[in-house]
Amino acid sequence: xxxxNFRFRSTKRSRSPVSQHGVYGLxxxxxxxxxxxxxxxxxxxxxxxxxxxxxxxxxxxxxxDTLPPNLPDVRILSFGYDNRIFAESQNQFTxxxxxxxxxxxxxxxxxxxxxxxxxxxxxxxxxxFKKSIALALENGGLYEDITQSAKHAMFLxxxxxxxxxxxxxxxxxxxxxxxxxxxxxxxxxLDGLRGNSFEFAKTNQSFTSLSxxxxxxxxxxxxxxxxxxxxxxxxxxxxxxxGLPKEESIPVQEDHSTICKxxxxxxxxxEGTVVGVVRRVILSESAPPxxxxxxxxxxxxxxxxxxxxxxxxxxxQNITEPADGTCDWLIKDRAYTGWMMGNxxxxxxxxxxxxxxxxxxxxxxxSHLEKLESKxxxxxxxxxxxxxxxxxxxxxxxxxxxxxxxxxxxxxxYAMSSMTADNxxx
Length: 426
Prior knowledge:
By secondary structure, this protein is α/β, with parallel strands linked by helices. The chain has 16 helices and seven strands.
């Protein structure tokens, strides 16, 4: 539906060998320069390690091979740990969460403190992340930089269950697909996991109340996992959602093991969404304070009054509000995510026959953009060929200018030279 094409991949790629050495702790996959604008911290889950979890079968470690060219000023780190901790004592689990905090604190030099952090978690890596945030808040100023800088969390096939029963269901689905090194002691390992299911559920519950200031994106698998006679849906769409008001939930046409792997030729919404979120977070952090509250002078008000045609509420009066879920496909479309990432310098052009719902879709998109944590400057105009002052291009330009100048009154100086003494346009 877009009127332009885009390519998302860099043509120059290196291949990163998968190694079992040095998989514990934080490892740097991309430096982002001496003073990166943001940090990405990837946390694997039960199914792999700090390298294998993110490596496609074609050898592409996307966090190192294809993501950095699109985010050259972002430091990308991958955290590794012994995932057998999930079946062991809570003390060991807490120690790993604290290790993540300590290593992240050490690697953030004085000039990089305060730079936003975006976490990417697969599977039970979400539990490590949530436990780390809880520990950081409990320890007050010790990890203040991390708690204040954690701006967004992205979950890939993560079980957000807040009840012991739901967590137990997830663990039951894991049995047939455990990695070989864990499957050798499957019975004891699963017993250990079940024994900790209450603590997992409690960690999920506490995070819900702690995440009010953080952006959340949850990806969920749509394919069953396993090559046996009965493949399983390890984390279904319901379990993969936290249920927060501003949470973005995105389906991925992969199974539980491949949802976190991206090959050389791309595909799916994960990488595009990651790039878009990181860029918006950086933009939000570097943007100057909103100046919409600055006083408007009499001359500026004359310019605004001469441009005004209709209020936003009246403009939307005859446009149906979309039913829940009916327009969500747009923000998951690759053309849209590429446009949001800035991979195209053109317009996102959506076209269709009369009566197909373009205005309803535009209303949905306007509302979606206005809710983004980066708070973009969203201007809109809805033409109406039944209303005299809304049926021509001049009306569109006037109202876009009005919205821009009302939020940035200083811009009116560019229009004043085009007005006569009696406030008429030349």
